[in-house]
């Protein structure tokens, strides 16, 4: 009996070590990347003999980089809006209903999330050519939206499964039709899930490289621009661009997490 507290304490120490090793594994490279953006030299490496903000100020002074940021954000927003609308509609259609072909529809819905990125990008490229869709913003938005729909469906279906059926039944007993019931009862309940799925899809689209590379036109997205700059070698400029993108996505993620938590408490 006296060995159990010692065993529990040993397991807790072991798990703590694993946790902090994982934290170091994730955050040390990010910290080094941010530091290299302050190096007063065109070459990446230690030691850092002098520091400068020129690389970061250059990011905000470079019209090409700013245009690429705006282009990537526009693609992410448009693809997220499409994927959220389509994914929510499919989730409402599938959750809590039994009909012929439901399993097949669900399987085809989640399939884009399971296909490897390079295979998906090649398939989209061939299909876009078959449909006559020119490479560019429209093709990228289409590919990103199709890839993001499964994540919206899974998140919204999980939230729908916890919706009290009594609320829907009460609304129908009071004479509300299915559309009014959805707008007044179901949709407000789904807001936290929809917001969470939207942020996830937004970040996925903003960070997507393979589909953007295969379906892009002459104007690159941010990951494609960074890849193009990498061909001439690593430089603090790339670190500065990546750091700005990291801060932007982290700020959006933190805000969404806090907002979603507050919405869940209110509901």
Automatic annotation (TrEMBL):
GO CC list: plasma membrane
Chain ranges passing through the membrane: 12-38, 69-92, 104-127, 139-160, 181-206, 238-256
UniProt subcellular location: Cell membrane
Topological category with respect to the lipid bilayer: Multi-pass membrane protein
InterPro entries: Bact_Polyamine_Transport, MetI-like, MetI-like_sf
GO biological process: transmembrane transport
Pfam families found in the cross-reference section: BPD_transp_1
Ranges of residues in domain ABC transmembrane type-1: 69-256
Keyword Flavoprotein attached: no
Keywords tagged on the record: Cell membrane, Membrane, Transmembrane, Transmembrane helix, Transport
Family per similarity comment: Belongs to the binding-protein-dependent transport system permease family. CysTW subfamily.
Stated name of the protein: Spermidine/putrescine transport system permease protein
Organism: Aliiroseovarius sediminilitoris
């Amino acid at each position: 009996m006296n060995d159990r507290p010692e065993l529990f304490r040993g397991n807790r120490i072991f798990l703590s070590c694993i946790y902090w090793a994982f934290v170091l594994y994730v955050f040390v490279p990010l910290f080094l990347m941010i530091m290299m953006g302050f190096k007063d030299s065109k070459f990446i490496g230690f030691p850092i003999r002098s520091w400068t903000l020129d690389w970061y100020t250059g990011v905000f002074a470079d019209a090409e980089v700013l245009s690429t940021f705006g282009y990537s954000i526009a693609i992410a927003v448009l693809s997220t809006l499409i994927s959220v609308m389509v994914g929510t509609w499919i989730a409402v259609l599938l959750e809590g209903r039994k009909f012929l072909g439901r399993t097949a529809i669900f399987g085809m819905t989640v399939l884009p999330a399971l296909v490897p990125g390079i295979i998906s990008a090649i398939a989209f490229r061939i299909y876009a050519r078959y449909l006559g869709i020119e490479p560019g913003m429209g093709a990228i938005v289409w590919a990103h939206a199709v890839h993001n729909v499964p994540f919206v469906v899974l998140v919204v279906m999980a939230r729908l499964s916890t919706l009290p059926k009594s609320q829907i039944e009460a609304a129908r007993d009071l004479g509300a039709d299915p559309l009014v019931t959805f707008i007044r009862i179901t949709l407000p309940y789904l807001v936290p899930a929809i917001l969470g799925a939207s942020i996830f899809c937004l970040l996925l689209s903003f960070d997507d490289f393979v589909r953007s590379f295969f379906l892009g036109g002459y104007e690159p997205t941010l990951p494609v621009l960074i890849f193009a700059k990498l061909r001439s070698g690593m430089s603090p400029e790339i670190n500065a661009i990546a750091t700005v993108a990291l801060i932007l996505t982290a700020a959006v993620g933190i805000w969404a997490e806090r907002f979603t938590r507050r919405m869940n408490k209110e509901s």
